[in-house]
Amino acid sequence: MAACIFCKIIKGEIPSFKLFESEKVFAFLDIQPLSQGHALVIPKFHGEKLVDIPDEQLAECLPVAKKIAKATGAENYNILQNNGRLAHQLVDHVHFHVIPKPNQQEGLG
Ligand code: 5GP
Ligand code: ZN
């Protein structure tokens, strides 16, 4: 979809820090991370909400989110996927957040 910022990121028209790319999936760092390593995993198929994405286009998203979560080394993390404004969705292209929580030892001085 021409006006979609995540479609532009997939096409390289908007720069991003790419973490992973395959035929159906693209993953990159969030521009306003909630924690170090906060990543977004998106299907290349444009759809606004989860129900708009065919299963075969979605299938690889969670396995990629899992790989990224593992690669961060975080023992605690959230996988989030927002649908609709009231559910805090700001970008209308389906995306899974991978939000690592710093390990507890860090920050305990
Ligand atoms: P939402 O609230 O829609 O679930 O989350 C959208 C996410 O996309 C936000 O965390 C925001 O920081 C991220 N984001 C918005 N625009 C850009 C962009 O141009 N580049 C990157 N890397 N992330 C973006
Ligand atoms: Zn899009």
TrEMBL record:
Annotated HIT domain residues: 5-108
Cofactor: Mg(2+)
Record flagged with keyword Magnesium: yes
Active site per database record: H95 (tele-amp-histidine intermediate)
MF-aspect GO terms: hydrolase activity; nucleotide binding
Keywords, alphabetical: Hydrolase, Magnesium, Nucleotide-binding
Family note: Belongs to the HINT family.
Name of the protein this chain belongs to: Adenosine 5'-monophosphoramidase HNT1
Organism: Cladonia borealis
Entire protein: shown range: 1 to 109 of 133
